[in-house]
Specification:
With about 90 residues, the protein is of the alpha+beta class. The chain has a domain at about 25-90. It contains one helix and five strands. A five-stranded antiparallel sheet has the order 4-3-2-1-5. A hairpin with a 2-residue loop joins strand 3 and strand 4 (about 75-80). It is globular, with a radius of gyration of 16 Å.
Amino acid sequence: MESMAVSENPESEHDHVVRDAFAIVQGCAYQFVYENWRGDVRTYEVHVTRLLYGTNQWHPDPCWLLEGTSRGEYRTFDLRKIQTSSLRKIR
């Protein structure tokens, strides 16, 4: 079995994975069921503009966030709260 080199800079390796994931979803539209911070569950259709790890006003704990437009408004979704079984690409 051939040995694999281990990156000495894991940040650059991590950044590469994030760039690849973002390239897959950027500019696409997805439909999914999402539970918001109040516990309300509804279906969204979102045109994705950004995927990032961070925080904001509605998501104070660091997490993966999907940003995009839905129903004419800019929204942010915590990826952990998307029901993955409902996720489907629509455009």
